[in-house]
Amino acid sequence: MRYQNQEQMIKEGFPSIHTLILGDVMVDEYVTGKVSRISPEAPIPVFNYGSSKRIAGGASNVAHNVAKLGSSVSMMGIVGEDASGEWLREHLQKAQIDTSGLLSQNCRPTTVKRRFATKSQQLLRVDMEDASPVSAVIEEKWLELLEQKAAHIQAVIISDYKKGVLASPGFIKKVLHICEKHQIITAIDSKSPYIESFAGASFVKPNNLELEQAVGIKIKDEASLDAAGKCYLQRSQAKALLVTRGAKGISVFAQDRERMDYPSQAVQVYDVTGAGDTVISTVTLCAACGMPLEEAAVLGNAAAEIVISKVGTVPVTAQELLNKIKGRNKE
């Protein structure tokens, strides 16, 4: 369905989309306190605990973004049979996210990034994870579940943080094959160098650094950006490439077309954490509603401008995006 305007698409189109997120879920923990002295045992600061909080991170942050924009969401990933896994499952369920695809594998723990910080400085990050490839048995369960849900899904987002869920290129190809068979929009946000497995994806969303690392071309200017983007498209055989470039906005590459640039508006930046998740969530829903990728990139920029104006990993809501669009139209 083609919507009359962006406002109608967000209000009516986004809620009609069922999105499945497949990827590396994790828990971001923030422990804050004070440091007032150095330990007599070793030349290290003594951290006096103040408070702590948990946030859904990684692919689970993408799921939160999509849900906040109004889409119904299913989640596939690995969690441990531990306190962090239990918290994450319950947290997603409270957000009305289907967690039937969150599976456990033997003694594999939930991925947790625990940060210790004072008000002004992060002191230490402790990562608890098993980034080895998931088992073939787990992959088969996800493929079966995807086949079962495919008739009711309009978009799939593959969110790869290199924590083992998407380590198999063959598995990614099977996921894309199922999606192509059912005419499902597929979006990929991946740190993997195995981009040849992305053939047929609707679009892939690397940032500048991920693009450089995937094709081995240092991006120093517009010409090298062009070369890197064209190389990525040729090798991956994805239908399009959407490169997030920080303050420079978004560049879109498509097969047999020149690069198109969509600069972002200048805003006060407080925290860029989670901006990429917001962009891929917004652009995917727009694409699933039938909007051309070039127009969707503009809305992706708008959503990113909202999230970087906040502190911490905070999803953008549909109402915030609507307000942003109305503000832009008045300018």
SS-based structural class? alpha/beta
Q: How big is the Rg?
A: 20 Å
Strand order of the largest sheet: 5-4-1-8-9-10
Helical proportion, percent range: 25-40%
* Succession of helices and strands: HEEEHEHEEEHEHEEHHEEEHHH
Major pleated sheet: 6 strands, parallel
User: Mean pLDDT, rounded to whole units?
Assistant: 91
Overall geometry: globular
How much of the residues is beta strand, in percent? 25-35%
Which stretches are low in confidence, meaning pLDDT under 50 for 5 or more residues running? 268-272
N- to C-terminal separation?
A: 29 Å
Layout: helices, strands, pairs:
Blueprint: H1 6-13, E1 18-23, E2 25-38, E3 45-58, H2 59-68, E4 72-78, H3 83-94, E5 97-103, E6 112-117, E7 122-128, H4 136-149, E8 155-160, H5 169-181, E9 185-190, E10 203-204, H6 208-215, H7 222-236, E11 240-244, E12 250-254, E13 260-262, H8 275-288, H9 293-307, H10 318-330
Parallel strand pairs: 1-4, 1-8, 2-6, 4-5, 8-9, 9-10
Antiparallel strand pairs: 2-3, 6-7, 11-12, 12-13
Question: Can you offer a commentary on this structure?
Answer:
This protein is α/β, with parallel strands linked by helices. Helix content is 37%, strand content 27%. It is built from ten helices and 13 strands. The strands form three sheets. It has a six-stranded parallel sheet with strand order 5-4-1-8-9-10, with helices on both faces. Strands 3-2-6-7 form a four-stranded mixed sheet. It has a three-stranded antiparallel sheet with strand order 11-12-13, sandwiched between helices. Strand 6 and strand 7 form a beta hairpin. Helix 1 runs antiparallel to helix 10, helix 4 runs parallel beside helix 5 and helix 9 crosses helix 10. The longest helix has 15 residues. It is globular, with a radius of gyration of 20 Å.
